Amino acid sequence: MKFWKKMKDGGAESTVTGYWLIEAKSLFSVVLIKFEGKSREAFHEHAFNCWNWLLKGQLFETITEDPVQEAWTMKANRVKIYNPSWKPFFIGRNRFHKVDSTVPTSWVLSFRGPWAKTWREYLPLENRVRTLTHGRKEV
Questions:
Q1: Which long-range contacts (CB under 8 A, 24 or more apart) does 58-61 make?
Q2: Domain count, the chain
Q3: What is the pLDDT of residue 62?
Q4: Which of 33, 54, 72, 129 has a C-alpha 20 to 30 A away from that of 19?
Q5: What is the pLDDT of residues 58-94, one digit of tens each?
């Protein structure tokens, strides 16, 4: 369980910083997320479903088909652009995506549900999918 913790969100190589108000992985998490420019070159799904409010900045989300079930092609990518709004946006745990800030800094308030035991990420530079578990350990 985390309270008032600051750390990278998405591993040590991530350009995204999380400020956890609370994290109880079996129940829920509330985190303030700071995006700074482009994220690392990895598409990922989440271990959780989440509702998000973009408070400041602009986000560019690239969504792709599941690389395990579909042939990886750039044609499969879709793009969503998020601007600050009172209306939250939902990201399901099985959405393979990559999120970048189109401005130097964007802030998101995220309410995350319970964590699944595993999730996956696709590393396009290595052309491989890996399955992760808590602590970002590869299984």
A1: 58/82, 58/83, 58/101, 58/102, 58/103, 58/106, 59/35, 59/99, 59/100, 59/101, 59/102, 59/106, 59/108, 60/99, 60/100, 60/101, 60/102, 61/97, 61/98, 61/99
A2: 1
A3: 92
A4: 129
A5: 999 999 876 666 555 545 678 999 999 999 999 999 9
C-alpha dihedral sign at 67, 40, 119, 61: negative
CA distance 56 to 106: 5
| DSSP code string of 9-54 | SSSTT-SEEEEEEEEETTTEEEEEEEE-SS--S-EE--SS-EEEEE
CA atoms within 13 A of residue 25's CA, in its CB half-sphere: 10
pTM, two decimals, is 0.90
CA–CA distance, 44 with 134 (Å, rounded to integer) = 15
Q: Which domain holds residue 111?
A: 2-138
The token pair that represents 16 in the structure block:
């995204």
Kindly calculate the radius of gyration of the chain based on its CA atoms and give it in whole angstroms: 14
Among candidates 132, 64, 56, 133, which has minimal Cα distance to 101? 56
- Beta-bridge partner residues of 67: none
